[in-house]
Please model this.
Amino acid sequence: MKKNKGPADTYKKAKLVLRLYVSGMSPKSMEAIENIRTLCSSYPEEKYNLEIIDIYQHPEMASIDHIIFSPSLIKLLPLPKKVLIGTTYNTDRVKSILGLTTF
Model:
């Protein structure tokens, strides 16, 4: 008999989906990009998707996600969705705030 997968099973297998908004290639933007790439490097490549969006080149995306400040990091999956503003220099704190400690 096949066992139905519950929400907890889906959560465990969910891919980490992050969207980082930056403002051009400013020092703060470059620092945020480096910090998030470092954070993601602790996960296998097939377990995460990182999208980096320059709000100068794609203001419509920032508008859709209601982004006013840069850099801003959005964790889209696994739910719940969370937004973090700043350079994200402390990766342990970023993981904790975004709920990634068990991912």
